[in-house]
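Per-record layout

source: Trinickia violacea
name: Aldehyde dehydrogenase
length: 487
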Amino acid sequence: MYIGGQWVDAVGGETIQTVNPYSGEAWATIPRGRAADAELAVQAAHAAFTTGAWPKLTASARGALMRKLGDLIAEHAERLARIEVADNGKLINEMLGQVRYLPQYFYYFGGLADKIEGAVIPIDKAETFNFTRHEPLGVCVAITAWNSPLLLAANKLAPGLAAGNTFVLKPSEYTSASALEFAKLVEQAGFPPGVINVVTGLGQEVGEPLVTHALVKKIAFTGSEFGGQRIYESAARDFKRVTLELGGKSANIVFDDANLDNAVKGAIGGIYAASGQTCVAGSRLLVQRTIYDQFVQRVVDFAKTAKLGDPMDTGTQVGPVTTPPQFKKILEYIEIAKGEGGECLLGGRQASGPNLGAGQFVEPTIFGNVNNQMRIAREEVFGPVLACIPFDDEEDAVRIANDSNYALAAGVWTENLRRGIVMSQRLEAGMVWVNMYRAVSYMSPFGGHKRSGVGHENGIDAVREYLQTKSVWISTGTETPDPFVLR
C-alpha cells in the first residue's frame, strides 16, 4: 500500500488474491489492510495537511502538480486501462477511453485551484470590514466501486486536491490494482508524502475504520445504496461531510415522434454498453404505446447482434460480470422477473459458448409486459437486463418515471423541442439527457437525488463539496461599543 509516501505491506502481513473475471484466474495480489493500516493512512494524511509541505504550497503550485499528474496518466493510459480490464472485465475500448479522458480532470481542476475566491461583503455595520474565505476541510476518504475504479477516484481526488485537502483512497477489494499503479504516478509527479494515500482491503475491515476515524472530515463514496446508507449514518455521528454517489433505476423514455434509429441505439447503449454495470444504466425503457411493439422488437433485434467475448478484444461489445456475487444477483433478478409475469423477449440465462472464458457472462436480456410495480422495475439489477414499460402520453411517462426511490438519471427521445425542455424540467433526476444517453464530463455536475445519493461530483460544484466557508470580521473603528449589546 502507499502510505505517507512509502510503499508498505499491511501491518498484519495479510493479502488478497484478485481474480480476472474473464479468465477466472487469480492475477494479482493486494494487501489486506485492517484498522491499524487505516490509522497509519489517516495520520499520514493529517500530518500532510497540517504540518507538511502541502499547506505551504500556493494554490497555483497545487494546480501545477495536478497538471503534471494528468500528463503522467496520459503517458501511461494504455497500461492503466489494461490493468482495469484485467481487474473488472469491462471492455478495453471503454476503459481505454476512460483512462485517456482522466487527465482532463486533473487539468480542469488544477486550473481551478487558484480561482477559489472569497468575497468582500458590503456589510451593514459601520466601521467594519467583512470578507469570506473558502478553506479546505482536511483529511478526506475516497471509497470507490469496482466498475470504473480510476474514473471514480478522479471524480473525488481532482476537486478535493484543488481545494487543498489530503486523501486516503480505498478502492474496491475486487479492483485495487489500478489504484496502486496510480499511486506510483502520484509519487512520480512529486506530491508531498501523505497527500494521497492508498489502502486496500475489505470494506468492513479497513473501510469502516477510515469512515469512523475522528480525524476524517469528509467521506466521498461511490457504491451500493446499502453501503452509502451505512456511511451516511456513521458520518452523522461526527457531523462529517459526505458525497454519496449511489444507485439508479433510470428511465429511458421514447416518444413516438423520436428519431427511432437513434433511439434504438440510445436504448442499447443505455443498458448494454457496460454490461449494465453502471449506476446510470437506462434499465427502464419507457416506450409510447403507439410504437411500443415495433420499437421493442427493433431493440430486441439489435441486442441479438451484440458480440460477447474477451474484453481485451476490441471487437467485443459485452463483457463478463465483474464479481461472482453480482453475477449470481443478476441471474436471481431474471428469475424474479419471470416469476412476476415479465415476458422474457431475449436472453434470460447465463451465456454459453466459445470465447467466454470462465463463463461469468449473462446474455443481454429484455423483458416485456413489465409494469412499474414489479421488482425488476423498482430495484437496481446492475446488469444487462432491460425492463420495457409502455406509456400513453407525457403525463403518464412522467408519472411512471418519477415513481421510483431513485433519481439519478433519465433519457428523453423526441424531436419536439418543447417536449424535451418540459420533460427535462419535470423528471426527478440529477441528470437528464435529451436525444442522447450516458454522457459525462468533468465540467458538468454528476449526482442524484432521493436514494441515488447526496451531493455532486464534477464541475465547479464539486470543488464546493470540499470547502468550508469562514467569515472574517475586522473593526476599523477606534472605540469598542457597549459590550452588552449585540452589534
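summary: Residues 251-434 form a domain with the Aldehyde Dehydrogenase; Chain A, domain 2 fold (CATH 3.40.309.10). The chain has two domains: 2-246+452-472, 251-434.
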